[in-house]
Amino acid sequence: MVELNKRLTTPDVFRSYNPETLAEAQRRGLLVIDKKTKIWRYGDSNNGVKRSLRDRRFKRAERKGHDWHNLIGLEDTVSKNRYTVFLVLEGATDALAAFELSRTLGILQEVGIVAALGAGYRPRDAELQQLAGRKVILIGDRDPAGLKCIELVSAALVEHKVEHHVVLVWPEPAKDLAGLIELHAKQKADLAPIIYALNKFFSSPFPSNHSTTTQPFNCSTTQLLNPSTQESGSVEKESFNGPTEENGGRSDFVAAFVVTKKGTGNTWSFNLARALINRDGNALSDETIRAALHEWFVRSRPMLPADADEEKTLRKFYGQLRRVRFTTAGLYAACERASTLPLPDIPGLPANYLKVAALNRELQRDAGDRPYICPVNKITGFLQLKYPEQANWIQHQLEKADVIHCVGRGEPHRQGRRGKSTLWRYLRPL
Fold first, then answer.
1. 286 lies in a domain?
2. Are residues 205 and 313 in the same domain?
3. In a domain? residue 259
């Protein structure tokens, strides 16, 4: 095992992870980095895979011995009696992403990380039986193969009485957990809903011994599902509509926005403003605003400028609340309406164009007389497109057809300078 240094953490594969995260994976013997060969290995004595620090395409799975296809990290989880377990049904980068998520949750040193290294994994009785009596979070890819694997493993967990488990899904356009963590590192994804939902799961009691109402995950849904209680709901819904002031809930909520890097305070305070509006909407009270900002300021203070003042920050925070142009919940509600209400009557446009026109219409209805934002990634997910460039092209065609008008062109993120979103107006009748 070797120590990580700054030069080794610059490759893309490690760029989204905190050094503390990587150090913990190394301490458990699951992550080994060879500085001479520039090869890193994720695995244990039973199973593993080697990857290159230079070439992301390089991958060498170990296929020797009787136990090469065993779950990685299961031995560590059982021997250390780790009560909470992330069961990752994908590769090494997703396992590291689970470590990073657990660091964000504040349970890095306690949680068990078990990885299957691919959606080809099929449940093995001898392995899953060892997870009985633990709280398990199933994580897999969002593609058909990944969802099918989740469904099989979830059913097997129920069969082996591992009834207190949930399936983690997310609304962001990330195929896997590694992609989600990368979006979060670039400040393009909000982990607050996931953090709140998982903390709620961690604090929930185990089902009673006489409970028999178990239900495995169904891959035709996209929900965070608790089979032991038959309670399900999207991460977004459970997180932002649940209580946030009870049992330290506010602390859990604010935790996702605490500043960890100097020079990013404005970004994270704005993200907190958006999340508060997303959660409370018109019910957001002055008391809640002040309490949330106070806790954020206190916890972020080490990374804020030396002359930062809480009262001045609060005044600026009210301005940020006013500038929030859209919320995640609002975007998803607009997508839902656009998919169910009649399409606009615009002759000559293909079906997909009309669907995006409907989405723009619903966003304009929400915005009133103000311009609105229609993120490309939301269009991509709404139409289930393969490339964001396709979504950009459709918006461009709608603009040419005088369906929408660009009020202000967006700018990409640059080093040291945050970009901005494109603003639109819908020109047809609402």
1. yes
2. no
3. yes
Q: Is residue 351, in this structure, part of any structural domain at all? A: yes
Q: Tally the residues of the chain.
A: 430
User: Is the distance from CB of 39 to CB of 51 less than 8 angstroms?
Assistant: yes
Task: Give the model's pLDDT for residue 94.
Answer: 92
The burial class, CB within 10 Å (0-12 / 13-18 / 19+), for 75 is middle
3-class SS at 131?
helix
Distance CA 6, CA 388 (A): 33
pLDDT digits (tens, 9 = 90+) for 141-197: 877 888 888 888 888 888 887 767 888 877 657 888 988 888 888 777 777 778 777
- Can you give the pTM of this predicted structure? 0.54
DSSP label of 314: H
Structure letter (DSSP) for residue 301: G
Smallest CA-to-CA distance from 202 within 252, 250, 156 is with 252
Q: Measure the CA–CA gap between 287 and 418, rounded to whole angstroms.
A: 30
208 and 64 co-located in one domain: yes
Total domains, the chain: 3
Nearest-angstrom CA–CA distance, 128 and 116? 12
Average pLDDT over residues 337-343: 92
Within a domain: 420 = yes
pLDDT at 6 over 50: no
The pLDDT of residue 225 is 36
Q: Which domain range does residue 254 map to? A: 249-323
